[in-house]
Write a structure and sequence with these properties.
single chain; seven-stranded parallel β-sheet; alpha/beta
């Protein structure tokens, strides 16, 4: 069982999945909850204990991320678990008509947020010889889809980076794994698809439970896995 002196950092903490992951990990970890807006974090976690940290930073910016996350780690100590939840989905243009800004936006929010988080967190894990990194890919990004080129490329990059980190860090005592959700049942997705039946969609709390398992000592033998989480659809 993980002790309450262990620290888990959750990026994208104020989002639907981030909140669910925080609820799953709250009993066993001190939390560092990372988001772009301190006001939003405070509104989302109004009862956060004094031992938690609400961390406002734009994770798409390397210099800002290095500075802010470095300050947090210097304050609370090394991070034992990183849940890299920050990301976004956007249907885009056909590849031949894709604006550079559309591609860059998907890479920034899904890939650079991961890279900038691990830059700050992983060295401490290596120094201690233990840690967990959990990333979020996408079931739909296992292959390209029409008008999803930028998103599929970005989430595919997350998957490949996860596998590479697993190969690099596994021998150092650090497990790195990725969950691949299908459609997540969020208010935003329900609003965007009002005629769809969400009964088979993945509940955020169910996806968070899988992430919680990967964050735990029970997953010590799991490394480099891309785990489909598909609900009952």
């Amino acid at each position: 069982m993980t002790t309450t002196t262990s620290t888990a950092m959750i990026t994208g903490a104020a989002g639907n999945l981030g909140r669910a992951v925080a609820a799953v990990l709250a009993d066993d970890f001190r939390l560092a909850l990372v988001g772009s807006s301190l006001a939003h974090l405070r509104t989302t976690f109004p009862q956060a204990p004094a031992t938690w940290r609400l961390v406002d930073v734009d994770l798409t910016k390397q210099e800002a991320s290095d500075k802010r996350l470095g300050e947090v780690i210097a304050d609370i100590g090394p991070v034992d678990v990183l849940c890299s939840i920050a990301g976004a989905f956007h249907m885009g243009e056909p590849v031949h008509a894709m604006a550079a800004s559309s591609f860059d936006a998907m890479i920034d929010v899904n890939v650079r947020t991961l890279l900038n988080a691990v830059r700050s967190v992983v060295p401490g894990m290596i120094a201690r010889g233990r840690g967990r990194v959990i990333t979020v890919g996408a079931l739909s990004a296992q292959r390209g889809g029409a008008e999803m080129g930028a998103y599929a490329a970005a989430k595919s990059a997350v998957m490949r980076l996860t596998e590479s980190m697993a190969a690099e860090l596994g021998p150092k005592g650090i497990n790195v794994n990725c969950v691949l959700p299908s459609l997540i049942d969020t208010p935003q997705n329900r609003a965007a698809m009002p005629d769809a039946d969400p009964a088979g969609w993945v509940k955020p709390q169910d996806l968070a439970a899988v992430i919680g398992f990967l964050a735990s000592e029970r997953a010590v033998a799991v490394n480099g896995a891309l785990i489909p989480v598909t609900g009952r659809g």
